[in-house]
Amino acid sequence: MTPFDRDSDWSDFVAGLILDPVVTRYWADFADPALTDADKERLAADEFLPWFEEDRARGFVGWVLRTPAGEFVGFSGLTTADEPVGGPDPEFGCMFATRWHGQGLATEAGRAVIGDGWARLGLERVITVLDSPNLASRRLVDKLGFRFDRAAFSDQAKPFLVFVLDRPGPG
Predict the structure, then answer these.
(1) Do 127 and 114 contact (CB within 8 A), yes or no?
(2) Residue 29 carries which DSSP code?
């Protein structure tokens, strides 16, 4: 895993994740069939790039995963939690290109990202938020040891399920 670099990773991030209808099928922002690939890339740039910069300033790292041959696999990291969840605890997330789904890579990446948060940042708690019926994401949350904490609702009454993972104690 290497830290996300806009110059070397953005085009692969867009091609491997944003333009993949399987990856984005639960994202309302990208669901409009009238959107062109250029529209989706603009939406992604408006949403993700400022977020990545803000997170970097807070010490959070977005990690890019590649094969030894350099093929883009996906992205995982800690980020600032958006409303309606918000709060001081960073949010764990990951996205993998469809080709790499179901191979355990998200679990490995999640353990590494969260471990980095415990060790480097001294975090006491990490959250993750599910905003869709994505069963693969739910399985990942369970494998990583998160527990259900609460439901939160947007201004439009969209539900978000918040899960938490507390720093493990010594021993």
Answers:
(1) no
(2) G
Structural domains in the chain, CATH included, are 2-126 (3.40.630.30)
Closest among 55, 109, 104 to 82, alpha carbons compared: 55
3-state secondary structure of 131: coil
What's the pLDDT score for residue 119? 93
- Pick out the chain residues at pLDDT < 50: none
Cα dihedral: 59, 111, 137, 76 (round 10): 40
Three-state DSSP at 118 gives helix
CA separation for the pair 91, 132 (Å, rounded): 16
Which amino acid is located at 52 in the chain? Answer: F
Is 20 in a helix, a strand, or coil? coil
- Please tell me the predicted confidence (pLDDT) of residue 118: 94
Average pLDDT, whole number, for the chain?
A: 89
Question: Do 55 and 92 contact (CB within 8 A), yes or no?
Answer: no
The whole-angstrom separation of Cα 119 and Cα 105 is 21
3-state secondary structure of 28: helix
